[in-house]
Amino acid sequence: MKLTHVLATAATAAILAGQGHAQDMTLRFGHVGAPGSLFEATADNFRDCSNAALGDKAEMQTYGSSQLGTDKEMLQKLKLGQAQFALPSSVMSSVDDAFGIFEMPYIIKDRDHMRRVQAEMMDEFQGAAHENGYHIVGLAENGFRHITNNVRPIAVPEDLKGVKLRTPNGAWRVKMFQEYGANPTPMSFSDVFTALQTGVIDGQENPYAQIASAKFQEVQDYLSITGHVYTPAYILASKRHWDQLPEDVRAELETCAASTQDFTYEHAAALESELLGVIQDAGVEVNEADKDAFIEASKPIYDAFAAEVDGGGEMIDRVLALGSGS
Q1: How far apart are CA 314 and CA 326, in angstroms?
Q2: CA-based torsion, 210, 213, 215, 217: positive or negative
Q3: Comparing 3-97+121-141+233-268 with 146-229+274-322, is the CATH topology the same?
Q4: What percent of the chain has pLDDT over 70?
């Protein structure tokens, strides 16, 4: 038996041994979001709902700002039983190619489109998670991503030429920005502010909620509204730990995850207009990018996904078809 299996089983057993007492059954929920971020609001909403529903069966505690590690470290900690829940987003494309569909530029039009994709295709994403030892309790979001940098406004893909741009740890995001002409650099979110401040990188791409809460507006000159990718977030557990939770606890957590998704979508939509103002007020120059130019430049990424990922072409077609009602 692998050491990681032994450690995870032991950790889960220790948690479940005291499941009659909240102080004994502690569920640790880690995320990388800074105070004021959408991730923090999402995790705290799920925590509050879960604690109210579970009563003395368990107590959930949230740990933001990468206190439990980077996204990759938290994925490992889930399997080791050192954390029970995490809120990964783009990094899931490195777990399984199926999640790379959300790395395709402009493939998700809006949140209603995302709900249709979830309704029609969630079994496939859950299957991919299970194959890799995880369980998706529910979906939230990271949001629509935009580009900030200190070199120039980005209106068309050619403006990215030579820009050192931080990306999350996901192969498809790197390929996308290479195709656009940038110099993409995967980096943990917790390292981005300092890297921008010191000039190690020129820019980054994130939703307004992550940009503003991490105070990137303090170290960036330009914000270009590209909306190039919509990234869901995943309320994630290890499959082993999830399967060992009592059935009634799992049911309460699933109900809370669904409620949290509704909260997150509403909160994210409200933040979009509010936080753009916060970024502008900090002195950041804002421009609207030519999205048609970016969409045209994205065709090779779609072709590569269709060629390299088993069933990738069919998956692209299905997701695009589900966007027709938006």
Answers
A1: 20
A2: positive
A3: yes
A4: 92
Tell me how far apart the alpha carbons of residues 243 and 266 are, in angstroms, rounded to a whole number. 31
Question: How far lies 3's CA from each of 9, 17, 45, 131, in Å?
Answer: 10, 21, 34, 19
**Strand ordering across the sheet containing 134-144:** 59-63, 26-30, 85-86, 230-238, 134-144
Domain 3-97+121-141+233-268 has CATH 3.40.50.2300: no
135 bridge partner residues:
237
Amino acid at 161: K
pLDDT above 90 as % of the chain: 90
User: Contacts for 71-78 with beta carbons within 8 Å, 24 or more apart?
Assistant: 71/32, 71/168, 71/169, 71/188, 71/189, 72/169, 72/188, 74/30, 74/31, 75/134, 75/236, 77/30, 78/134, 78/236, 78/237, 78/238, 78/241
Grade residue 24 by pLDDT with cuts at 50, 70 and 90.
low
Residues with Cβ within 8 Å of residue 294, at least 6 apart in sequence: 105, 106, 156, 157, 180, 226, 228
Instruction: Give dist(CA 269, CA 61) in Å, integer.
Output: 26
The phi and psi torsions of 142 (rounded to 5 degrees) equal: -100, -35
Domain residue extents for the chain: 3-97+121-141+233-268, 146-229+274-322
Query: What per-residue confidence (pLDDT) applies to 184?
Result: 98
Q: Could you read off the pLDDT of 199-225 as tens digits, one per residue?
A: 999 999 999 999 999 999 999 999 999
Q: Which fold has domain 146-229+274-322?
A: D-Maltodextrin-Binding Protein; domain 2 (3.40.190)
pTM greater than 0.85 (yes/no): yes
Model confidence at 324, pLDDT cuts 50, 70, 90, reads confident
Q: Rounded to an integer, what distance in angstroms lies between the CA atom of residue 256 and that of residue 43?
A: 11
